UniProtKB/TrEMBL annotation:
The keyword Iron applies. It comes from Capsicum baccatum (Peruvian pepper). GO terms for biological process: lipid metabolic process. Pfam families: p450. Heme binds at C378. This is Alkane hydroxylase MAH1. Belongs to the cytochrome P450 family.
Length: 431
């Protein structure tokens, strides 16, 4: 294994010599449950996935759907829960609530189905928890020899057992959703409302375009595709938001500045409810944007990336790597390096993301790879910022959050950087 935090190496691997560092068979083995989804494939199939997903996500109708879906879930699911907990002075796990929020919103967005995991009684839905349970197994697969985890998988023991159960739970949720949506589309094709342009349609077309015949059945392909997108959009955003509130608890002056920025830029008075703003308006929240980037610098949701070169190569640092080298890019360590961030690297400073002209400072992605870098840069970055701004502005303006036992906060040992055992908080209503 070769670990590197050198940003020139990161640039080389993720961008300059991209074709020598595919996801490859090693990655596919570790993340086998992702099947033929975008995260797991290379070459033409990846290009087709990327083109299809990008064309949907950059569509004007998608932007409208995104705004409507997010605010709908905030108003019908998220706020009623916070209001109820505030009324009863209940201590609850904010990370769990945020995960439910991102799960419901991504399911509604992709499949037009709201699982309503954000109900007042916080129901236990095995498929909603499935992702979290699966993640620790992925990290272990990076560390223990392949034959060991394969044996554990075969015996259905340890983290491998959790992973199998998580996939079964997820499949029981996703297959009926896909079938329902397919039936709906077949029956009402002519009466589909304009804004209901469907992800599903685009991926069915993609499947039909693919001639190699190695994608399995249409149902399996759609399952893989949606599994990947839900995996991409659920825990990443909720983990970042959870860490954001842990950092704000330690930096009240930053919270005050965010509150003032919300009032000024969104023209909302201190005693008025903040109910809606568009994606375009969210771009004005520059300091909040800086605070979210600063959060992802300390706690990149995906804490590492792993690559195996196709061919021998010499990295900019002078190190030789070969197809036998497993290269680990520890994004979480990069965010804390003095050579990259200076002497004040351990301070939470949203200002470092603001340019002299008051806009958002451009920081190259090979220095800040929280959203990856190069041709495989995250496709949901803009969506994630919008989602994170809606949730954080709603909470900061309308409520006061108090973290209970902040000294007990530590990260999970997982490729997804979450707060171990959740983030226990109390909430009070401000307006
Ligand atoms: C704070 C939130 C997010 C973070 C930190 C994040 C980070 C990342 C990272 C590091 C990758 C590269 C993973 C790899 O190649 O192994 C990635 C890829 C991706 N992300 Fe995100 N992501 C976030 C939210 C989202 C959201 C909301 C979506 C929307 C569905 C999304 C969609 C994707 C997709 C489709 C890819 C695959 C790109 C490709 O391989 O070409 N992400 N993201």
């Amino acid at each position: 294994m070769f670990f590197t935090c050198d940003s020139a190496n990161i640039h080389h691997i993720l961008s300059k010599n991209f074709s020598n560092y595919p996801k490859g068979s090693e990655y596919r083995k570790i993340f086998d449950v992702l099947g033929n989804g975008i995260f797991n494939v290379d070459d033409e199939l990846w290009e087709l996935h990327r083109k299809t997903t990008m064309s949907i996500m950059s569509h004007a109708k998608f932007q409208i759907l995104l705004e409507r879906t997010m605010w709908d879930i905030i108003e019908k699911g998220f706020r009623p829960i916070l209001d109820a907990f505030a009324k009863h002075g209940k201590i609850f796990d904010l990370q769990d609530v945020l995960q439910r929020f991102t799960f419901d919103s991504i399911a509604k967005l992709l499949l037009d189905h709201d699982p309503r995991s954000l109900s007042i009684d916080l129901p236990y839905l095995p498929y909603e928890k499935a992702f979290g349970d699966a993640l620790e197994a992925f990290l272990l697969r990076h560390i223990v020899p392949e034959r060991i985890w394969k044996l554990q998988k075969w015996l259905r023991i340890g983290k491998e057992k959790q992973l199998i159960q998580a996939c079964e739970a997820f499949d029981q949720f996703i297959y009926p959703c896909i079938s329902r949506k397919q039936e709906e589309l077949m029956m009402h094709k002519s009466t589909i409302k304009d804004e209901e342009f469907a992800f599903l349609d685009a991926y069915v077309t993609m499947y039909n375009q693919w001639n190699d015949g190695d994608l399995g059945t249409l149902q399996t392909f759609l399952r893989d595709t949606f599994f990947n997108l839900m995996f991409a959009g659920r825990d990443t955003t909720s983990a970042a938001l959870t860490w954001f509130f842990t950092l704000l608890a330690k930096n009240p002056s930053a919270e005050k500045r965010i509150r003032e920025e919300i009032q000024q830029q969104l023209h909302v008075k201190e005693d008025e409810n903040l109910k809606f703003f568009t994606k375009e308006e969210s771009r004005k929240l520059i300091y909040l944007h800086g605070a979210l980037c600063e959060t992802l610098r300390f706690f990149p949701s995906l804490s590492l990336e792993h690559k195996v070169p196709l061919d021998h190569d010499i990295l900019p640092s002078g190190h030789h790597v070969s197809p036998n080298t497993r290269i680990i890019l520890p994004f979480s360590a990069m965010g804390r390096m003095e050579t990259l961030w200076g002497k004040d690297r351990l301070e939470f400073k949203p200002e470092r993301w603001i340019s002299d002209r008051g806009g958002i400072r451009h920081v190259p992605s090979f220095k800040f790879p929280a959203f990856n870098a190069g041709p495989r840069t995250c496709l949901g970055k803009e969506m994630a910022f919008f989602q994170m701004k809606i949730v954080s502005a709603t909470i900061i303006h309308n409520y006061h959050i108090q973290v209970v036992e902040p000294e007990n906060i530590s990260p999970t040992t997982s490729i997804m950087m979450k707060v171990k055992n959740g983030l226990m908080v109390k909430v009070a209503k401000k307006v």
